[in-house]
Design a protein that fits this description.
The complex is a heterodimer of chains A (216) and B (364). Chain A contains 7 helices and 9 strands, in the order E-H-E-E-H-H-E-E-H-H-E-H-E-E-E-H. In chain B, 63% of the residues lie in helices and 6% in strands. In chain B, strand 1 and strand 2 form a beta hairpin. The N terminus of chain B is likely disordered. The chains are: A alpha/beta (216), B alpha+beta (364). At the A-B interface, helix 3, helix 4, strand 8, strand 9 and helix 7 of A face helix 3, helix 9, helix 13, strand 6 and helix 14 of B.
């Protein structure tokens, strides 16, 4: 029975257990690969966990000039190969989901690799084992269907680009694809607050290093 | 690796290897190999200084050079690689910045290629292993390649046969003469043994990680990670065995050991274009990327279309927007925008925002 990864950010309660669990993984010891952000700190407690969606045709791997990002036979997109990564951060800036991180101190990109040391031997990724709300769930399709409603989809549209992924996101029965709409349409700022009221407050700054690809 | 994974039903079919060769790669490989052949002929004074016993090494080196150049040329034709290659040279030779760039080049070469400080910041143990293997290989190459090419040999001084002197490109260099039975002589004659010990020490540090570390066990591959270590080990051990046979076994098995050593060295040379060894040549691109980053940091910064915060250089954003269609991606919005104009943080938030909108839910 194939084990699959289902993410449902709507269910995220911001407990940060995934961040702590993720940093236990042997392939990126001590560093959390999950991005956890407040959607709009000024108006909502909603948080956003983001793991790698493991694209079938990964944009990060295609834009890599060093050919350093590999997808294994079982469809898991790995962190850049240490010996090859030249630290250009093309992957960081091209990934449609905003997943890879560049670490200037050792000049390499690391990203969520679905805890490959665990999933490659049939165990669950660390984040999914500790998530109390099943926002991050790893199991069989049957397990998913017996426990909850919603339709897992693995097709996304960004602009004119269709992206298919190994990881599923949970939508409702009426949708078989997530159309990530135009930036202007997707965002409706709350008029009660100044736009940058809480921008300087980053509750996860102690675990979330800057991920942009500028020079050290 | 797939046999380790019980959840591999969605395995990707691996296509048969295409038998076609890249024309530019073949041409460049042949040109480089021909140039090296000519340099060997000229440097060995029409092969008079060439040691016929080393012919196998020379042919393997020529073939390895062809393979390395071929792979490099094919690699440079990938759109993102080509872009960085062109940009790197453009920025390096930018008028008014050449002197500063030369300084940066020297600093980066030392930092990235010689001292390899970025590996030390990952792990001291990993850095030590890499430095030992690196310097062992550099030393061995500096000793063996000039000898193999017939560029360097040693002769006894006419006045005193116990004094050896180097003959470089046919020119005797009495100033650099040394007594064969001196400490200097011992070190020079044992440079390859020293190199082998350095490499073996590096392997001894690196190997336990390859055998025990959970992360390495799940991601390493036989051809990419293990064969290079096995080859380095085999070359070093058989090389040391020559000295052991010569000094401790009265020359027993010497011929068999020389043959075995030659085979391991030739296999090592032929494997250079493949697996992990190719990073030796690829990593030079790391320097070009730093010129790109330095120019990007000095230039205009792109601001996110959603949060208006700067998130990368305009140069890199625009390069990516040109590059992606070449690779078959189209992230352009209907209204004229582009997903690449959004910073990674806002991309993450917008995916969830759209999930909420699609299923008709609101934040609490």
């Amino acid at each position: 029975m194939e084990l699959q990864f289902f993410v449902d950010p709507i269910r995220c309660i911001g407990c940060k257990a995934c961040l702590q669990g993720c940093s236990e993984c042997a392939t990126h010891r001590g560093r959390s690969m999950i991005h956890l952000e407040y959607m709009d700190r000024g108006t909502s407690t909603q948080t956003v966990p983001m793991v790698c969606m493991h694209c079938e045709n990964p944009t990060c791997a295609q834009v890599c000039p060093a050919d350093a990002i590999k997808r294994t036979e079982d469809g898991v997109v790995q962190s850049s190969l240490k010996e090859r990564c030249i630290g250009c951060a093309n992957c960081v800036n091209a990934c449609p989901f905003g997943v890879p991180r560049y670490y200037p101190e050792f000049d390499q990109m690391l990203k969520c690799d679905m805890c490959y040391d665990r999933t490659s031997v049939g165990l669950k990724p660390m984040c999914a084992t500790v998530c109390p709300s099943d926002a991050l769930f790893f199991g069989t399709r049957e397990e998913f269907e017996t426990r909850r409603s919603g339709r897992p989809v693995n097709e996304f549209r960004f602009g004119a680009q269709i992206v298919r992924t190994r990881v599923f996101m949970v939508l409702d029965e009426a949708h078989d694809r997530l159309d990530v709409q135009d930036v202007a349409l997707a965002d409706t700022p709350d008029p009660r607050f100044e736009p940058d009221t809480y921008d300087s407050v980053d509750p996860f700054s102690h675990v979330e290093p800057p991920s942009n690809g500028g020079p050290a | 690796m797939s046999e380790r994974n019980p959840a591999s039903a969605g395995a990707i079919p691996v296509p048969f290897m295409s038998a076609t060769l890249d024309g530019r790669g073949v041409l460049a490989g042949l040109v480089f190999s021909a140039v090296l052949s000519a340099l060997v002929y000229l440097g060995s004074q029409g092969l008079r200084g060439f040691d016929g016993a080393l012919a196998g090494y020379l042919f393997s080196t020529l073939f390895a050079l062809f393979g390395i150049v071929y792979r490099y040329v094919v690699w440079l034709q990938r759109p993102p690689t080509r872009l960085y290659w062109v940009r790197g040279w453009q920025l390096f030779w930018a008028p008014g910045k050449r002197l500063r760039n030369m300084g940066l080049f020297v600093r980066l070469t030392f930092d990235k290629l010689v001292a390899q400080t970025f590996i030390r910041r990952r792990s001291h143990q990993r850095w030590l292993a890499h430095q030992l293997i690196f310097w062992g290989c550099v030393l061995a190459i500096l000793v063996t390649f000039p000898l193999t090419f017939g560029w360097l040999r040693f002769e006894s001084a006419v006045s005193d046969p116990s004094v050896y002197m180097p003959v470089l490109f046919g020119a005797r260099m009495p100033l650099f003469g040394f007594a064969a039975r001196s400490l200097v002589g011992w070190v020079i004659f044992h440079l390859l043994d020293i190199a082998a010990v350095l490499v073996l020490a590096g392997i001894a540090i690196a190997l336990p990680r390859h055998l025990k570390d959970e992360a390495e066990l799940s991601t390493q591959r036989l051809d990419n990670d293990f064969i290079p270590l096995v080859l380095l080990f085999a070359v070093s051990v058989t090389g040391l065995m020559l000295t052991v046979s010569n000094m401790g076994m009265a020359g027993k098995f010497y011929y068999w050991i020389t043959t075995t050593h030659a085979v391991t060295v030739m296999l090592w040379l032929l494997f250079l274009p493949f697996g992990k060894f190719f990073h030796i040549f690829q990593r030079i691109a790391n320097l070009g990327v730093w010129f790109y980053k330095a120019a990007g940091a000095e230039g205009e910064q792109a601001r996110c279309a959603r949060c208006r915060e700067p998130y990368l250089s305009v140069m890199q954003r625009d390069d990516l927007k040109r590059l992606l269609p070449e690779l078959g991606f189209d992230y352009a919005e209907e209204g004229g925008g582009n997903w690449q104009d959004v910073c990674p943080s806002c991309r993450r938030k917008l995916v969830t925002l759209n999930q909420f909108q699609t299923v008709g839910k609101r934040f609490v």
